[in-house]
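Hello again, I could really use a second opinion on something today. Take your time with it, there's no hurry, and the full record follows here:

___
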Amino acid sequence: MVVGMRADSPGAEGTREGGTDFFVSYTHADAKWAEWIAWQLEAAGYRVKIQAWDFDRGSHFVREMRQAAATADRTIAVVSAVYLKSAYGEAEWQAAWAADPSGAGRNLIPIRIEDCPRPGSLSQLVGDDLFDLDAETATARLLATARGGRGKPATEPLFPGHRATVGTTPEPTFPGQLPRMWRAPGRNRNFTGRERLLAAIHLSLQQGRPVAVTALHGLAGVGKTQLAAEYAHRYADDYSLIWWIDAEQIPLIGEKIAALAGPLGLPGDGPASVIAATVLAALARRTGWLVVFDNAEDPVALRDWLPDGPGHVLITSRNPAWGALADPVAVGVFERAESSALLSRRLPGQDPAAVDALAGELGDLPLALAQAADYIAATGTDAAGYLAKFRARRTVLLAKGDDPPYTGTVATAWSVALDRLRAEAPATVQLLQLCALLAPEPIPLTLFSDHPELLESPLADACADGAVDLDLDDVIGAARRYSWVGRTGDTIQLHRLVRDVIADSGRRAPDSAATCRTAVTLLGSVVDSLNPELPTDWPRYWLLTPHLAALCHQAAVRTVDSRHVDRLLYCIAGTVSAHGRGGTFAAGEALARACLDVLADHGSEQALLRVRHELAWHVAQRRPARAERIHLDVLTARRRLLGNDHLDTLASRQEVAWIAGVQRRWTAAEKQYRDVFGARRRVLGLDDSETLITCLRPS
């Protein structure tokens, strides 16, 4: 009998006919652990069933899984945080537990490969842990668990400080062991999601191309460094050398590469540049290495420091322009499920609805989520309480909460970049400050390019026809290099938290009121060029709607002169009218109400009445009686303010007639229409279109 073989191993009386000793249950992220466990068990004489080796290509996964579990004497659950969230993993271990709930037959053996809780029924079973061990110790513990009985190993345990070297045998390497030559950040225990990105990086590196991990929209805090660190830890057993280099300061990269000379056994005397060249030459002759350049900004400057040869290079950067040197992998913000999973893991027991709302308010940005979790844990508040505070004091809270895996906060990271941008590209800062007054939605570039005369220099010069030294594309390019905007076709967009930080900086600037006046004038010029009665113009109104609403809520609007406030109100009234004609009543009503709530004490009465007049049309679609009260109030105010025959007053008189007809008060409606017709014929003439429209209504 092979040492370690069970009494009921292959061919023994206790084994099920056609069955196996163990079925290894795992999730895809832990495949290396599962294969290592299966190899060790088979090497000890056990018969093992594992998806990676035994499920036929093209077969039905669920059927294969059920058959494997049913014909195996025991199931080994490879337990990790990812496994515990897997629906298939849960089904597999629960099926084994249901067949032996008392644990007397040891049908289910949980093996933890990382420090994570064992919830529910799993916590009642005695298992074992293989993490934080060397390969020999882990093998001994695994086989002792498989045998059952006392777990004393056959040989003396290794000295705890021992670290085995990476082997070259065909068996899978032990997944819990780091390479001998290792320099990388510690693993983030709260790392969540990103499975597709990790798979994309792995695939690209296996094809022999350096991978540049860049941030979608260039956002600092999106998790580029955390993704690269997780890749290094997850695939550590693929390499004999992993070396992490902070590449933000190009002049220091040579020294950091030269630091590899010692681990590689190379001479370390002489200038750093010479030693670094020797290291790069040595890497070109070696296999099995990974070098990570973290936070690199300039592809041209880094090019000469990239190692060549049969190894892998991983680059993280806010600059997306790496296509000539590497395969870019865009890193966006979390998907909502990932955001909620991270907050729920960090803050157990929170209301799921509050967690989801908080994730949305934070724009699913990983750094902001980590800061929020740290602040909530430190202060003892809850997700709902933090959400309320954040909505009231956004930029204050963006500077609080220090999560160890990240360096700094959202506010500090982005403020430093903005200061650098002010010195290098002032036109770009002008553009960003205007965009920060608008919504974090697509902004048409024609808002700027079609109206250079309304802008201040140097942005005005870049938007002018025939700009040579600097044009609008250059201005946007500088923002993309500094991770501030995303561009899709002829629109640009800021992440909501980027907008908050830039807007806060703009509010403290001495020219904040002037910037706000420019934003109002730009939007006004676009709305002036549109006609709410033309369906071809409606999509442009829809595009402007969130930006008009956002501008209403800017504090700077309440500090500008009334002329600009009125300009904004008339823009909103025209846009609300377009929504009414286009049938998008909910959006139109929301815009009108947001405007009236915020600017009721700041605009002129006539401009505010124009918005209320358009609002009534939207209200009438669901509550005609309420709409009639609005129309009557507006009519009374306009008669007092403008007189009975002013064009605005005549418009209100016609709407009062219309709403009476909507409520089937035909006699009153006809009388009011005739009164309006007479007034319009007297004021505008019989041939005017408004007079003719009124004439047709009573019929």
In short: Residues 20-147 form a domain with the Rossmann fold fold (CATH 3.40.50.10140).
